[in-house]
Amino acid sequence: LGYCATLTIYKYSAELILNTSGKPLLIDKLNEEYPRTEIKGGGLDFIINNLTNPDYINNLDIAHEFYQRQISDNNKLYDTSEFDTIIIELIKTTTELSSTYINHKKTIIDKYTILPLEAADIMQVTTIEETVNDMIDAAGGQLKAIQEFLFTLTGDIRMPLVDGITFSRRQKRSLRKSLKPGDIILTFSSGYLSNIFLPGYFKHVLTFTGIHDQKKNKYLRNIRLKPDQQKLIFP
Q1: Tens digits of residue pLDDT in 125-148
Q2: I need a surface site. Which of 152, 183, 219, 232 has the fewest CB within 10 A?
Q3: 193 or 209: which carries more pLDDT confidence?
Q4: Can you give the pTM of this predicted structure?
Q5: Distance between CA atoms of residues 73 and 89, nearest Å
Q6: 215: left (phi over 0), alpha (psi -120 to 50) or beta
């Protein structure tokens, strides 16, 4: 999902750059600052810099190589669960976006990278393959290498404290204001956080349904509960 989302952003960013290329008036307009909407100046140039950034491209190429290998090695991804229709559609979309990325990358690098040697270095497929091989060897397996690569970019390690956490009244008020019915509150004994999912061991899982003066029961009516779950709700 993360790779597919990244490729989607890349695709539309690349198409914006390519469709505005050679149109100075349009380029100047897109680089203008719009204080009312907090859009800073140089927005189009910023996108170009990101699309030609060697580090960004290197990470995308590594993800692309992992994706191709995983699809090639694991045909069971297509029919292993009740969600096979969703998985097939996701793989199809991601594969199409992956091919689009390769084509757009070469076009943009040829057009916007000034140094030929730098462009050639970015396009070195063998270097990416060697990098991925080294990552797999170091991690002890392909799936483990993918996990380590993913969380190197998106992970935010959090270790639970030995002592309990004490919240001030101000912090409690701030927390209550930020919570909305349906929010999930987790307490965990070990694990780590990421912006994609939350692996770990959780001691408690609470669903915030609102406070008394918010007429919390009106939110419960929108939740489809099983009969045995409804018995646990007290008026």
Answers
A1: 567 888 888 888 887 777 777 777
A2: 232
A3: 209
A4: 0.56
A5: 18
A6: left
